[in-house]
Amino acid sequence: MASPRGGAERPAALASRSVTKRPAESVGNVTEIILPERQVENFQLLLPMLTQLNQEQRWLAWIDPPQALVSKWQTMHGIVASELLVLRSSEEYSAQDLAERALSAGTCHAVVLWTQKLGRQAFDALQRASAQGDSHGVVLRQR
């Protein structure tokens, strides 16, 4: 077993220590939801989840949401504009970049990303960012 200093620990040193539980390494919290085509803005499906994610005192960030959903959500459910951060990707900042930045900053309790595809490496990067910022990520994409 390696010690924190990089060398190998001796069994005697292990036996003489009191057993203490160390907290597990922080693991990211990203959920991926795959929706059928033309249902990526399915309001009824998203409503309970988005309502729950809007309960904390940090930002709720939406990255590249369908405009129809933003308009419906704000008029029907009165999200306070100061609690919702809507970000749009550009040539300078991809949706993935925006999501990683928002997750890792720690200022958003949740980041919801609408995307067409998400590879394993991209998902893992979101997980790391989520752990760093203690934020929850939700990825919504079409099948």
What is the strand and helix layout of this fold?
Layout: H1 11-16, E1 29-35, H2 43-53, E2 59-63, H3 67-77, E3 84-87, H4 95-105, E4 108-115, H5 120-133, E5 136-142
Parallel strand pairs: 1-5, 2-3, 2-4, 4-5
Describe this structure in words.
With 143 residues, the chain is of the alpha/beta class. Helix content is 37%, strand content 22%. The chain has five helices and five strands. A five-stranded parallel sheet has the order 1-5-4-2-3. β2 (59-63), α3 and β3 form a beta-alpha-beta unit. It is globular and about 35 Å long. Mean pLDDT is 76; it is low at 1-24.
Which regions are unreliable across 5 or more consecutive residues at pLDDT < 50? 1-24
How many helices? 5
Termini gap: 44 Å
Q: Tell me the major beta sheet.
A: 5 strands, parallel
Extended strand count:
5
Helical amount: 25-40%
Biggest sheet: strand arrangement: 1-5-4-2-3
Overall pLDDT: 76
C-alpha geometry:
globular
How would you summarize this macromolecular structure in one to three sentences?
This protein has helices at residues 11-16, 43-53, 67-77, 95-105, 120-133; strands at 29-35, 59-63, 84-87, 108-115, 136-142.
Distinctive features:
5-stranded parallel sheet; 37% helix; globular; single chain; alpha/beta; 5 helices
